[in-house]
Amino acid sequence: MTPTSTPLPPHAPARAHAPAQAPINAAGHAPVHATAQAPVHAPGHAPVADENPGTPNGTPVPVGLRLTGRRVVCVGGGPVSARRTRALLDGGAEVHVVAPELCEDLAEHARAGRVTWHSRGYEPADLDGAWFVHTATGDRATDSRVAADAEQRRVWCVDATDAAASSAWFPAVARVDDVSVAVTAGGDPRRAARLRDAVATALDTGSLPLRRHRPGPGRVDLVGGGPGDPGLLTTRARRLLAQADVVVHDTLAPTSVLDELDPDVELVDVGKTAGHHPVPQHEINLFLVEHARRGRRVVRLKGGDPFVLGRGGEELLACREAGVTVAVTPGVTSAVSVPAALGIPVTHRGVSRSFTVLSAHEDLRAGQVPTEGTLVLLMGVSGLAATADRLVALGWSATTPAAVLEDGFGERQRRVVGTLADIAGRAEQAGVRPPGIVVVGEVVALAPAMQPDPVVLVAHGSRDPRSRAVTDGLAAALGERLGTEVVVSQLDHAGPRPQEAVDALAARGHRTVRVQPLLFTPAYHVTVDLPEALASCAATADGADVHVQGPLVGHPALLDALDRRLAETDLPDGVRPTALVMASAGTSSAPARAELEQTAAAWGERHGLPAVSAYASAAEPTPGQAVAALVAQGHSVAVGGLFVGPGYLPDKARAQALAAGAVVVAEPVGVAPELVQVLADRCAAPVGPAPHTGPSAA
């Protein structure tokens, strides 16, 4: 096979697709590639001779050199020569090092007889019989002389002192399995190394096309796909999938990643569900062996880890007995990851120092089932009642905490908690169905503290898709900050309603839910509409705790959000605001208006400017009236919007303010990170009812 090397052009993206190159020489070493840079040109365009920086004599041609058993001379005994020598030795070259002294790495090679050391300065005769030369003495005159002598003898030479004058360059090489990609970058080794690292990452993660297009030996890889979330696939698993010709997968494997594979990759679903085993195990084993013998790369993609109740051992033995190359790539087991995702650690200091994983389908016998620590039962939903009774009979207390974890990392993920005495009834009442994991032990009681309560954000509501985009973004940012689930509800217009959102979370096993109004003041929506909506929650009738947080006004970070949004506006040249208007939606509640006026005054005091509050509806002054009054006093007025997101009222406030002469109107505060901080602080506060519970005057 003729080796090739295809370095990326200097301006190509790091993930550019390049042909694979990985010949193996007779000594079992990959060849060293002394490659030059070849820019990529659009079809129909001729290359420009001097397009590549540092190559005044024309565009270099990328090549690969097979140096096995051939004389290579390295002039210089320092770290640069040591790095190049390692690569040359890997390529099977017969390396001669010419230097008065050697660094430790090169000295070790010399002591081991891997290189021949000429302990002196360079002499032209050193190049006699050489196929390739590398010089890195650190002395420009000496390196130039070596390069000139090599040029005279028509021997390719890498001059580490002057890359532009070199007749060859060492590329930065990314190697993954049997693929090598060499990268050069106009004589800039650091740039080449960074590109090489990016290419290596893309190869590692399967982002580049890795499948063979020529016949080769077949093999089977048993790959643990984790609990179903593609983000929990290992890097090696993704790389093997990108190389696969056939993928044999289970139902619980992260099958969404299969959409990323080439259309001609054969996908075989052998997934088993409760009571339904469409493909017997012995047929799966035969299928793996058959396709590997046909020279195909087969990935057996399994949920969790292949060796944790996954019958991976049987598949491995079948391949070995058939003489098929087989390897195992571990995966994240659901036995640990699903409990962790739902707030249950399988071990915890002072609570449990061990855990046991069992199949609930097997007979639970005395002597095989521990009665302390944590017990994790896979495939345990269908026979839960009988399993719980059996555990009590084996010595577990009926009051031991127990949990059923349904559809871990799936759309139905939820946690149902009880004790061995009642967990089966609770799971049946909740409608739990496979797949699911059962956890038994005192660690279950830690779940409420380990997993923060989910949050329902309550917006007033808007039909404007821009507004919903902002609230959804706030929910995502808040969820990431708190490490919990955050959903958006609306009092008006689009759903879900607050009570619907709370009931949906309770149905998924959450016994405590926080409700946070995305509203700034204790006005009618907070004091009347929201309590009325939550009063109809089925979850509260079933014993769930629903805790309502207070509105957002009064938090100092709100002023930071107003400042940020105002700073992001484009003021006319030479114009500096001399007064501020804080526009908001408006309310007929006198206490609510008083809090808004206090907030506006605090904003103005912060900047040493007069500031007033204005209302887009239900109260006065309107933004137009407030701006007009300040303009009449000779002020340049800037308007900030105490709105969560865009919509009818913010647009109305903007139009009025600009028509009245405002020099600038800032966007609503919803996209400011300070608002996320306000929400996080509210949700981190001790649970309790909203501070304003009585209805205000309409």
Automatic annotation (TrEMBL):
Pathway annotation: Porphyrin-containing compound metabolism; siroheme biosynthesis; sirohydrochlorin from precorrin-2: step 1/1
Catalytic activity reported: precorrin-2 + NAD(+) = sirohydrochlorin + NADH + 2 H(+)
Entries under InterPro entries matching the protein: 4pyrrol_Mease, 4pyrrol_Methylase_sf, 4pyrrole_Mease_sub1, 4pyrrole_Mease_sub2, CbiX-like, CobA/CysG_C, NAD(P)-bd_dom_sf, Siro_Cobalamin_biosynth
GO molecular function: uroporphyrin-III C-methyltransferase activity
Domain Tetrapyrrole methylase: 222-423
Enzymatic class: transferase
Protein name: Uroporphyrinogen-III C-methyltransferase
Biological source species: Aquipuribacter hungaricus
